[in-house]
Amino acid sequence: MSNSLIIHSASQLVTVAGDAPKRGETQSELGIIENGALAIRDGEIVAVGATEEIRTLATNETKLLDARGRIVLPGFVDAHTHVVFAGDRANEFEMRLRGASYLELLKAGGGIMNTVRNTRAASLEQIVAETRARLDRMLAHGTTTVEAKTGYGLDTATELKMLQAIYELDAAHPLDLIPTFIGAHAIPEEYKGRADEFVDVVVEEMLPAIRDSKFEIRNLFCDAFCDDGAFDLAQSRRILERARALGMPLKIHADEFANLGGAALAAELGAVSADHLMVTRRDEMKLMADANVIAVLLPGTTFGLGKHDFANGRAFVEENVPVALGSDMNPGTSWCESMPMAMAIATRYEKLTTAEAIVAATLNAAYASGVGERVGSLQTGKLADVLIADVPDYRYLAYRYGANPIRMVIKRGRVVYAI
Fold first, then answer.
1. pLDDT tens profile 42-63
2. Which end of the chain is more exposed for a tag (fewer CB within 10 A), N or C?
3. Mind listing the pLDDT tens digit for each residue in 140-175?
4. pTM of the full predicted structure?
5. 27 to each of 63, 176, 310, 358, 364, how far by Cα in Å?
6. What structural domains does the chain harbor?
7. 247 vs 346: CA distance, rounded Å
8. At what angle do helices 112-121 and 156-172 cross, to 10 degrees?
9. Is the dihedral of CA 123, 128, 131, 137 positive or negative?
10. Residue 392 burial (CB count, 10 A)
């Protein structure tokens, strides 16, 4: 085996093997191989199994990596982020600590609009540089694929600038970035009180501009924020139906603050995922299950807001909805660059088991990001996105928190982070 690597003697090789999103009882199936090993060649996984079996594939040119006493698992996939932006909102964090609510800040021209002003004013180079530093920290915590949204432009030029930043970072950074357009992230200041007119802009100007740009539209998600203080159900439907007509896969922010019917809309329109879902009803969960819509839960957001109405992850599992996790990395409500931290919160407050959270942060998150055929599990033929964690058992990933368990990150067969 030339240009090859064998990782061997893992106390647990956590494969998360599967050919579709896991749901219900299968959400907790990790496919663990004790004293496991995997072989990598030219950036892909070519064999998975017991150490004594896989080591026979080695030649004089094969690099051997001993994972004794540690676990080996797929790279984390962060299924929902707003990682691309300029500036910060530390002042608003202090205001929230003194009692201001998220919606109060938004109505006063803060919140998302604060970041919109900073991002509009920033150059492409500044946005790329600031985002690259965040991606470096995410990589160090084991994230190897990240969904990245626009939405801090809210005008055509800045939304295209953000997309350009995402594509440049995807080409230059070890992390793979999955682009999502969310021009309908908030109603900009210049359209205050004229939300329908802004929807006209999204539908008639922004989406056609993306279609006519150099970006490949069939690999670019369209999202909309269907919630109190953002876009109502009819406005969200109009945006998503137009995007679907253009051939874009769909996502939706829904049920974070109020239930406007966004989860049911996701099921009706065949969205890949519905995200947030703090106040989703059981009957809507059933609709999502029937339509194969993945629930992307974002526990860091509720935690970041200091609130207690976490999404009911246990109910989603019980209703047979595939559950994925995201950090919701953003400057206002969840500046979290650690998927292990998201898993720790999800197990305590959203009632997922550690095994369910690992599946949610790997295979299911990959399918929620449209790349489940390539990443998210340790299987023959998939990209060799692999983590070595300095813990003896998979349960430590959620059991311990506040420290980084990741000791090595391998992306497409190449070591890109090690301590």
1. 999 999 999 999 999 999 999 9
2. C
3. 999 999 999 999 999 999 999 999 999 999 999 999
4. 0.97
5. 34, 24, 19, 9, 9
6. 4-74+376-418 (2.30.40.10), 77-368 (3.20.20.140)
7. 33
8. 80
9. negative
10. 12
